[in-house]
Design a protein that fits this description.
Elements (H helix, E strand, L loop, with lengths): L1 H13 L14 E7 L3 E2 L3 E10 L10 E6 L4 E7 L4 E5 L2 E6 L12 E7 L5 E11 L11 E11 L6
Parallel strand pairs: 2-10
Antiparallel strand pairs: 1-3, 3-8, 4-7, 4-9, 5-8, 6-7, 9-10
Length: about 160
């Protein structure tokens, strides 16, 4: 019997339902990213990050935090979005907002500018995570989403 209870608790937490409350926790997030690549070695590029409330969810009703990590060869130099407070630390960008979104609606876009190392080559993958920043009941989880984006790095164009 103990095992069945554990399975039910895990299934409820995965479904976004706090087992102790028996009510739906505000739903999942959808995190997407695009870039204007391929990027040129020694150049610059831009990533756009979107956070949307899953259409099947209860919407985004809490502050939301996005953290996006860049690999060696891509250095974030600016990050902004209407209603977002962003900070850049070594190799990552963290942004938070108190904006809310109804199911299926998107929060304002975050735009991140990067510089590309002169010796960067091949493909580089950046990744991120969004989470609703709220304390949740034991056994529940906040709405979250993850994403990864791979960009091709091309050699610098020789000056003519």
């Amino acid at each position: 019997m103990r095992r069945i209870g554990l399975v039910l608790t895990v299934a409820a937490a995965v479904a976004g339902v706090p087992p102790a409350l028996g009510a739906r926790f505000p739903g999942d997030l959808i995190l997407t990213t695009v870039h204007d690549g391929p990027f040129e070695a020694g150049g610059t590029g831009t990533f756009s990050i979107d956070v949307t409330a899953d259409p099947a969810s209860g919407g985004i009703g809490y502050p939301t935090e996005v953290t996006y990590y860049f690999p060696a060869g891509l250095t974030p130099v600016r990050a902004s979005g209407a209603g977002w407070r962003c900070r850049i630390t070594a190799g990552s960008v963290g942004c938070e907002t108190r904006d809310l979104a109804s199911p299926g609606f998107q929060l304002p876009r975050i735009t991140v500018g990067v510089t590309v190392a002169r010796d960067a080559t091949g493909t580089l993958t950046a990744s991120g995570r969004a989470v609703e920043a709220v304390a949740v009941p034991t056994g529940a989880r906040p709405a979250t989403a993850t994403v990864a984006s791979t960009v091709q790095i091309v050699p610098a164009t020789p000056a003519t």
